[in-house]
Amino acid sequence: MTQRIVVLTGAGISAESGIRTFRAADGLWEEHRPEDVATPEAFDADPDLVHRFYNARRAHLATDGVEPNAAHLALARLEEEYDGDVLIVTQNIDDLHERAGSRNVLHMHGELLKMTCTSCASVREAWPELTVEAVCPDCRATGTLRPHVVWFGEMPIGLEEIFEALEHCSVFAAIGTSGNVYPAAGFVHVAAAAGAHTVELNLEPSEVTAGFAEVRLGPAASEVPRWVG
Ligand code: BJW
């Protein structure tokens, strides 16, 4: 079934749950340049560093304080109300949409709680600590497990389904994303060309704010429940 409402979420929706965004002054990239941790080349050059970066984020996600906030919960209510007509496309690798009760979630940049094998391509629930010495439980290769995430230069997940939904949606909302990273930053133009109403909900105008018909500025945990109603 084609979804009528497409919601794109980014790091800003999880900020009030205690997960740092990427590009804020205290963001993740302040400590780690993207090219050091979020490219296949970085993983080839220093897999230990990349594993430590993602192991730490996995551990943080499991800490008590990190819970879905009012914005995640409001989107789960939206899905309940418009049964089958809402697709959440998230760039986030956390599981807060699922924990809030959303069912139709597409993780276009992968999932922190999964690992994949570069040798046999199996995808499984990740162990808390991935290391270069780890052995793939499926093909028994050593040193081939990596976080199931999409790095720069890699193909995002589910693009065919996403573009199909964008081309047929009547509402497109982007929440908590800076509009720096493509192809997600271009989704608003696809939805607008399809005749959808487009709305941006963000703390500050994004790089692509001019493409939206409506812009609502403020913290997601307040703005998203207000928008969902
Ligand atoms: C709040 C808030 C609150 C804060 N409430 N709001 C030139 C050179 C090289 C490459 C390229 C190039 N031009 C384009 C490319 C391609 C490249 C790209 O976009 N590069 C740019 C840097 C230019 N893209 C890719 O390589 C992608 N693949 C690709 O293009 O494949 C080929 C293709 C061809 C044709 C069609 C389709 C595809 C892959 C991109 C992978 C991105 N991966 C990462 C890491 C994932 C794993 C991980 O989490 O570690 O994904 S990078 C990082 O950025 C992460 C995020 O999902 C992504 C987006 O960040 P996001 O979510 O927007 O976060 P922030 O921090 O930037 O913004 C937060 C926002 O929230 C801010 O606006 C705040 O104001 C706001 N906010 N608090 C509401 N409380």
UniProtKB/TrEMBL annotation:
<feature type="domain" description="Deacetylase sirtuin-type">
    <location>
        <begin position="1"/>
        <end position="229"/>
    </location>
</feature>
<feature type="binding site">
    <location>
        <position position="57"/>
    </location>
    <ligand>
        <name>substrate</name>
    </ligand>
</feature>
<keyword id="KW-0963">Cytoplasm</keyword>
<protein>
    <recommendedName>
        <fullName>NAD-dependent protein deacylase</fullName>
        <ecNumber>2.3.1.286</ecNumber>
    </recommendedName>
</protein>
<keyword id="KW-0479">Metal-binding</keyword>
<dbReference type="InterPro" id="IPR003000">
    <property type="entry name" value="Sirtuin"/>
</dbReference>
<comment type="function">
    <text>NAD-dependent lysine deacetylase and desuccinylase that specifically removes acetyl and succinyl groups on target proteins. Modulates the activities of several proteins which are inactive in their acylated form.</text>
</comment>
<feature type="binding site">
    <location>
        <position position="139"/>
    </location>
    <ligand>
        <name>Zn(2+)</name>
    </ligand>
</feature>
<dbReference type="InterPro" id="IPR026590">
    <property type="entry name" value="Ssirtuin_cat_dom"/>
</dbReference>
<comment type="similarity">
    <text>Belongs to the sirtuin family. Class III subfamily.</text>
</comment>
<feature type="binding site">
    <location>
        <position position="54"/>
    </location>
    <ligand>
        <name>substrate</name>
    </ligand>
</feature>
<keyword id="KW-0520">NAD</keyword>
<feature type="binding site">
    <location>
        <begin position="176"/>
        <end position="178"/>
    </location>
    <ligand>
        <name>NAD(+)</name>
    </ligand>
</feature>
<dbReference type="InterPro" id="IPR050134">
    <property type="entry name" value="NAD-dep_sirtuin_deacylases"/>
</dbReference>
<dbReference type="InterPro" id="IPR029035">
    <property type="entry name" value="DHS-like_NAD/FAD-binding_dom"/>
</dbReference>
<dbReference type="InterPro" id="IPR026591">
    <property type="entry name" value="Sirtuin_cat_small_dom_sf"/>
</dbReference>
<feature type="binding site">
    <location>
        <position position="117"/>
    </location>
    <ligand>
        <name>Zn(2+)</name>
    </ligand>
</feature>
<feature type="binding site">
    <location>
        <position position="220"/>
    </location>
    <ligand>
        <name>NAD(+)</name>
    </ligand>
</feature>
<feature type="binding site">
    <location>
        <position position="136"/>
    </location>
    <ligand>
        <name>Zn(2+)</name>
    </ligand>
</feature>
<keyword id="KW-0808">Transferase</keyword>
<feature type="binding site">
    <location>
        <begin position="202"/>
        <end position="204"/>
    </location>
    <ligand>
        <name>NAD(+)</name>
    </ligand>
</feature>
<feature type="binding site">
    <location>
        <begin position="10"/>
        <end position="29"/>
    </location>
    <ligand>
        <name>NAD(+)</name>
    </ligand>
</feature>
<keyword id="KW-0862">Zinc</keyword>
<dbReference type="InterPro" id="IPR027546">
    <property type="entry name" value="Sirtuin_class_III"/>
</dbReference>
<feature type="binding site">
    <location>
        <position position="120"/>
    </location>
    <ligand>
        <name>Zn(2+)</name>
    </ligand>
</feature>
<feature type="active site" description="Proton acceptor">
    <location>
        <position position="109"/>
    </location>
</feature>
<feature type="binding site">
    <location>
        <begin position="91"/>
        <end position="94"/>
    </location>
    <ligand>
        <name>NAD(+)</name>
    </ligand>
</feature>
<dbReference type="Pfam" id="PF02146">
    <property type="entry name" value="SIR2"/>
</dbReference>
